[in-house]
């Protein structure tokens, strides 16, 4: 039954002469460039910004940088993992509320109740689920771990059932809506629509003192840089490559022996942790956390910044988030009421004509990050030309 | 290359139904270790569905054993880890990753998380070897999306090699290929079948005649005929299915391609 077949010359399957495998990327030079980039970013955030910006503007920048942290996470989950998370406000809110609860309790003193609870007068004593947040040893880890745990639970259910694409986006958005409804409904213990306001102290430091506000800004800037370093490691790791593979061919990855659900889950949980941390730092920077800051609209605004900046790149989400938030403030100051329309227009224009975001303009010139390219390839004539150039092995 | 033992595939009475329509209706076949088995049959014969059942993509009853392992009832990624690899009719390489990254991912299903969160340093030996085998060493750093059609198919086969698949299920690997590419693909199949078992779904009869070691003809979800190329070609039932009437083997040459 089995025919005898002579062994073929193995050269027959080599259309091209065998040669040395070119290295993926020059590691040394790339590392140098990264270090230079981080040094530049640190100089900008730690030296230039505090020098040229007024206290008021610096506080605004601190707020934008918190949004940028959420954006970095969305860049991982959406840009790299293909999960359009329209509900990052949930995780941002969990982190923010955890931090705000602790700061309110700290301000009320041992055994005390937050001011708003006394105001509504419905409660005789602190609700049970508030109590652990009195301890910073619980509250601080909770700002990150709580969002991660929720993302883990949700992601485990959703990804194993192979919910993706628009269904995932809608589900994540519904979660944001549900959280807002829950917070508003439980006014007696959550502050309702007002949220947790009037946060004056941060671990013993008076937040009305400009010096302390500046310290909060530095903490935020440092945290953002750390998250960027972590993200860079993640997207250049094997896991980062695998995540892109899952984004582009989930079924194919399954046939290679991976469980795509776990791969996506990790990215989703990491993004949630970053959003939680951002929410936690947002509270001392702005002094308030409320349902209006974490609902559907802010959740979508997080995503718009990422889309504008370039979702699949490292810096795109950060720059996009800061730029959009800054533009919003600047334009709202001058033309109140027009921002919403401009924001919508911006989103449509970017998605339709520059799906890779502004970062892809940069990539047109540099072409470094392989996975950042395809989002716009074929859409622009420039993109096509560059795709052709890729035929030549990279030097 | 794989160094592991050679196993055969044993399919017993496999049935697949979709909403009352029976796509595979009690197929049994034995593919001995190291065989290059071609699955042929008219459209709708159940070839791809059978491969889907073997790889866990669709639910099936009966039994599919590879070596000592029962495959039916396991999820796709677990079956894959038992050494079963497949390609699809349309190329499914990760176009936005480089050739090297594609292979590295294919090789990595057993990696620990600790390895995953680190960067790849250099080119692992088995990947370098696979790059040579599939003739894409020169293109390792290029995006897979920039490869020619035939090269993408070779990359797919290369991914199965580094995945350490011991059973390769290839769905129309030479569709759309030039003559040179077909020859190269055939030689590649013979090379990899030295320490692997290969099952090929193919419509190209010229390719089949040159590279099949054995052939199974499916028709209407059942096995119609089985044997060597010559035996199958001489089978009047096969000629009838393909041509509507019995003919001699000489004129079946073109007729079978329909």
Question: Nutshell version of this structure?
Answer:
The complex is a heterodimer of chains A (395) and B (258). Chain A has 395 residues and is mostly helical.
Quote the beta fraction of chain A.
Answer: under 5%
Stretches of chain B where pLDDT is under 50 for at least 5 consecutive residues are 249-258
Largest sheet geometry of chain B: 6 strands, mixed
| Overall pLDDT score of chain A | 84
Write structural notes for this entry:
Chain A: Keywords: Cell membrane, Membrane, Transmembrane, Transmembrane helix. Chain A: InterPro entries: ABC_transp_permease (IPR001851), ABC_transptr_urea_perm_UrtC (IPR017778), LivM-like (IPR043428). Chain A: It comes from Micromonospora saelicesensis. Chain A: One of its GO terms (molecular function) is branched-chain amino acid transmembrane transporter activity. Chain A: It is found in: Cell membrane. The complex is a heterodimer of chains A (395) and B (258). Chain A is mainly α. Chain A has a domain of 242 residues. A two-stranded antiparallel ribbon of chain A has the order 1-2. In chain A, helix 12 crosses helix 13. The longest helix of chain A has 27 residues. The N terminus and C terminus of chain A are likely disordered. Chain B has 258 residues and is α/β, with parallel strands linked by helices. Chain B has a domain of 176 residues: P-loop containing nucleotide triphosphate hydrolases (Rossmann fold), CATH 3.40.50.300. In chain B, the strands form two sheets. A six-stranded mixed beta sheet of chain B has the order 6-7-8-3-9-10, sandwiched between helices. Chain B has eleven helices and ten strands. In chain B, helix 3 runs parallel beside helix 6 and helix 5 packs antiparallel against helix 6. The C terminus of chain B is likely disordered. At the A-B interface, helix 8, helix 9 and helix 10 of A face helix 2, helix 3, helix 4, helix 5 and helix 6 of B.
């Amino acid at each position: 039954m089995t025919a005898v077949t002579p062994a073929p010359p193995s050269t027959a399957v080599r259309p091209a002469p065998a040669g040395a495998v070119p290295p993926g990327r020059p590691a040394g030079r790339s590392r140098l460039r990264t270090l230079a980039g981080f040094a530049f970013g640190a100089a900008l955030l730690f030296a230039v910004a505090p020098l040229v910006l007024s206290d008021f503007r610096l506080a605004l920048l601190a707020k934008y940088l918190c949004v940028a942290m959420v954006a970095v996470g969305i860049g991982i989950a959406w840009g790299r993992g293909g999960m359009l998370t329209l509900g990052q406000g949930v995780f941002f809110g969990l982190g923010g509320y955890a931090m705000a609860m602790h700061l309110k309790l700290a301000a009320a003193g041992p055994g005390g109740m937050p001011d708003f609870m006394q105001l509504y007068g419905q409660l005789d004593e602190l609700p049970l689920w508030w109590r652990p947040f009195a301890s910073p040893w619980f509250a601080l880890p909770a700002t990150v771990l709580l969002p991660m745990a929720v993302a883990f639970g949700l992601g485990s259910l959703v990804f194993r059932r192979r919910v993706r694409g628009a269904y995932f986006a809608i589900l994540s958005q519904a979660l944001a809506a549900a959280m807002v409804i829950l917070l508003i409904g439980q006014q007696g213990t959550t502050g309702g629509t007002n949220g947790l306001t009037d946060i004056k102290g941060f671990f013993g430091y008076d937040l009305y003192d400009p010096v302390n506000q500046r310290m909060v800004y530095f903490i935020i800037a440092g945290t953002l840089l750390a998250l960027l370093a972590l993200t860079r490691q993640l997207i250049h790791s094997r896991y980062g490559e695998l995540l892109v593979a899952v984004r582009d061919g989930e079924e194919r990855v399954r046939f290679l022996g991976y469980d795509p659900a776990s791969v996506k889950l990790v990215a989703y949980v990491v993004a949630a942790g970053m959003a939680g941390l951002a929410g936690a730092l947002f509270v001392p920077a702005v002094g308030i956390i409320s349902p209006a800051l974490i609902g559907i609209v802010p959740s979508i605004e997080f995503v718009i910044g990422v889309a504008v900046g370039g979702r699949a790149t490292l810096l795109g989400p950060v720059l996009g988030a800061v730029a959009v938030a800054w533009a919003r403030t600047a334009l709202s100051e001058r033309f109140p009421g027009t921002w919403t329309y401009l924001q919508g227009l911006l989103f449509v224009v970017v998605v339709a004509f520059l799906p890779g975001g502004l970062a892809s303009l940069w990539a047109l010139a540099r072409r470094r990050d392989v996975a950042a390219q395809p989002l716009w390839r074929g859409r622009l004539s420039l993109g096509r030309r560059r795709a052709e150039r890729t035929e030549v092995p990279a030097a | 290359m794989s160094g592991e033992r050679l196993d055969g595939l044993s399919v017993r009475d496999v049935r697949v139904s979709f909403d009352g329509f029976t796509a595979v209706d009690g197929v049994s076949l034995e593919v001995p270790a190291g065989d290059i088995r071609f699955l042929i049959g008219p459209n709708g014969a159940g070839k791809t569905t059978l491969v889907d059942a073997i790889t866990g993509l669709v639910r099936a009853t009966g039994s599919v054993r590879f070596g000592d392992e029962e495959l039916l009832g396991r999820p796709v990624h677990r079956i894959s880890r038992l050494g079963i690899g497949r390609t699809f009719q349309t190329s499914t390489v990760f176009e936005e990753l480089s050739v090297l990254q594609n292979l590295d991912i294919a090789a990595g299903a057993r990696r620990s998380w600790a390895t995953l969160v680190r960067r790849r340093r250099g080119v692992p030996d088995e990947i370098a070897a696979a790059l040579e085998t599939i003739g894409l060493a020169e293109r390792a750093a290029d995006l897979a999306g920039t490869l020619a059609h035939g090269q993408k198919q070779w990359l797919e086969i290369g991914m199965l090699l580094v995945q350490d698949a011991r059973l390769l299920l290839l769905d129309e690997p030479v569709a759309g290929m030039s003559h040179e590419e077909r020859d190269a693909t055939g030689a590649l199949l013979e090379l990899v079948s030295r320490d692997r078992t290969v099952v090929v779904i193919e419509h190209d009869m010229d390719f089949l005649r040159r590279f099949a070691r054995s052939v199974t003809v499916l028709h209407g979800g059942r096995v119609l005929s089985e044997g060597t190329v010559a035996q199958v070609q001489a089978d009047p039932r096969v000629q009838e299915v393909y041509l509507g009437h019995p003919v001699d083997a000489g004129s079946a040459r073109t007729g079978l391609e329909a």
